[in-house]
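Need a sequence for this fold. Nothing fancy.
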């Protein structure tokens, strides 16, 4: 792969990964406890949960330019 900025072939592919969200919502668990007792604590798990996203892109080792695959 050639760099679109400098034309160098000294490039590599990089994959970055990030996560969003949470596993348990304490506020939903407390509200569930108040409304439905011990079983209501399970409402805390009624969230979207953790989502993992990964993105791949090329990086030129000569000039530092990044571009999508």
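Here you go.
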């Amino acid at each position: 792969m050639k760099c679109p900025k400098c034309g160098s072939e000294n490039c590599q592919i990089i994959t970055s990964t990030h996560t969003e969200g949470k596993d348990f919502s304490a506020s939903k668990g407390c509200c569930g406890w108040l409304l439905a007792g011990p079983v209501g604590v399970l409402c805390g798990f009624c969230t979207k949960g953790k989502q993992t996203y990964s993105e791949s892109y090329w990086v030129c080792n000569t000039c530092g330019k990044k571009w999508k695959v």
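For context: The chain has a mean pLDDT of 81.
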